[in-house]
Structures are given as C-alpha cells and as structure tokens.
Design a protein that fits this description.
With about 290 residues, the chain is of the alpha+beta class. It is about 20% helix and about 35% strand. The chain has 6 helices and 17 strands. It has helices spanning about 20-30, 40-45, 70-80, 105-115, 185-190, 270-289, and strands at about 5-10, 35-40, 50, 60-65, 85-90, 120-130, 140, 145-150, 155-165, 165, 170-180, 200-210, 220, 225-230, 235-240, 245-250, 255-270. The strands form 2 sheets. Strands 6, 7, 8, 9, 10, 11, 12, 13, 14, 15, 16 and 17 form a 12-stranded antiparallel beta sheet that branches. Strand 6 (about 120-130) and strand 7 (about 140) form a beta hairpin. It is elongated and about 65 Å long.
C-alpha cells in the first residue's frame, strides 16, 4: 500500500444503533493503517476518533457511509462541496446509490485498498428560486429531485414549463418534478418517469398525476435550463428539494433548474454493472415487496 489513506466514517443511527457494523469497518481501517475521522460525536467518543475539522475535509481520500440513500444525500447536503468520494454500505431498503451491502463490503473494501475501483461522477443540478415579492432568492444543489406540488390545495396546478427558450403548453397536474440521474430511481420512478443510468449526461422532467397526457416525462440535456412558472392562481403551493423542508411558492415566482458544477462522486467497481445497477435494484425491490 503506497500511501496512508485519510478516511471519514459516518452512519445512520437508526440503522446501526449498537455500532456493531461501524466497529467492524473500523477494525478493517485499523488493519490498513488508515487515519480515520468522523463527523459524529457518538462515533468519536465511542471509538476515540477525532471529529474532523472543516479545513481537513480537502485531505480526505474517502467517506464511508453506513446507511441508505437518505443518509448519503444528507451527507452530501452538508459536505458535498468538498467532493469526497463515497463508499456506501447499504442499510436501507433499495440503496440505489450504495455500492456495498452487508454481504460484500469486506470484499469491496479490499478491492478499494488494492486500487481496483473507479469513481463515478454523477450529474447533480442547481435550483434558483426567484420570488416575485422580493424575498431573497434561494440557490441550492439538487441531488435527487426538486418537486413543485399543489400542497394542501384541492385544485390542480396550471404549470408553465419551459426548456431554454422553448415554452410548452400549460399543463394541469398535481405537480411536476425534475430529477437527476441518481434521483430518477426515487420519486420520479414512482411518478412514472424513466430510470436513467447514473452516468447519464441528462436529467428528467416528470408531471405528477397530470390531467391529460399532452406532456409526458421528458429527458433533457445537461446543458438545458428548465423553468417552472405559475401565474394563473393565487393559492400558495410548495416546493421541496431532495425531500427537505417545504418552501412556500406563490403566483409569479420563478423556478430555474440547471446543471450544477458539483458532482456526486461514488466509488464503483464494475463498469458494465454500474450502468444498469440502479434499474436492477429498483425493479428487484419492487418485485419483492
């Protein structure tokens, strides 16, 4: 092993309550003579590991995450700007973003330390919300999807959708979502949208319960900008980014979605499998349930 690795470990408390998996992973990292850090005080106190200082994030070689897709996305929301490659061990139900499982993580960690891996740079998006009433603009990264929804209103939303300079006919629906390739296997798939491979250079717009089929799910290029706009009703409605806190949207507010400069960087091991892995995991999960 040429260089000592700087590795961060974090976990989902609800998935590894007794820290048994965390302990097993830490024993492997100790055998590999790694410098290990964490962002969790519980892990730090339990195993005498330093809670990492922010300026040291740029020195990390890897982040090991114990949990499902939600745990990965939560980590990215907080620390994605540091572009640390992620090795995730799935403790959730589907785990479309997690390459490892309880059954194979030891083997895959061995491959990582033998440099038998590559990094997948998954496209992410950026959202800008411009409020008509003068509220401060919102600018935020999107790792899964942004959802515009009617919220508590019983009325369908009359939604204007534009891609670059092309404006489509108004659609009437419960809402619309715009999903990244990684997020295409989440709400987008449930709403009838297409699954995209993680290495796609495109993203998808999917209407939610549309009144008609005039606007079907649409795949757009990474270089395109999507604009969502409502100007026909005075009700309040909601926007959610990656399942986060609801943002109240009103008439004449503008939502722009476009490619982010940031990529979700995931450790991977099999190039052929990686293209279809999301499809396989999602389809097999739905078959079993």
């Amino acid at each position: 092993m040429a260089n000592k690795k700087n590795i961060l470990i974090t976990y989902n408390y609800n998935k590894d309550k007794d820290l048994s998996l965390c302990k097993e992973v830490l024993e492997i990292l100790k055998e590999k003579n790694c410098d290990v850090y964490t962002v969790d005080e519980v892990i730090g106190e339990t195993f005498n590991i330093d809670v990492i200082a922010e300026e040291l994030f740029y020195n990390l070689d890897l982040a090991i995450i114990l949990g499902g897709d939600g745990t990965i996305l939560d980590f990215e929301r907080k620390y994605g700007k540091y572009s640390v490659p992620i090795f995730a061990i799935n403790l959730g139900r589907v785990g479309a973003l997690a390459i490892a499982s309880i059954n194979n993580y030891k083997e895959l960690l061995d491959r990582y330390f033998n440099n038998d891996y590559f990094v997948t740079n998954n496209l992410t998006l950026r959202c800008k919300i411009r409020f008509a009433d003068g509220r401060e603009d919102i600018n935020q990264n999107i790792y899964n999807e942004i959802v515009l929804h009617r919220g508590m209103s019983f009325k369908m939303l009359p939604i204007d959708i534009a891609i670059n300079s092309t404006k489509f006919d108004k659609i009437y629906a419960d809402g619309v979502l715009v999903a990244t390739p990684s997020g295409s296997s989440a709400y987008n798939f449930s709403a009838g949208g297409p699954l995209l491979s993680h290495d796609s250079n495109c993203y998808v717009i999917t209407p939610i319960c549309p009144q008609t089929r005039d606007f079907v799910p649409l795949v757009v290029s990474k270089d395109d900008t999507v604009r969502l706009f409502i100007n026909d009703i005075d009700d309040k409605f909601s926007v959610s980014i990656d399942g986060g806190e609801l943002i109240t949207i009103k008439k004449n507010d503008l939502i722009y979605v476009y490619k982010s400069d940031h990529y979700l960087r995931l450790i991977n091991f099999n190039k052929q499998k990686s293209i279809y892995e999301t499809v396989y995991k999602v389809m097999s999960s739905n078959t079993k349930n």
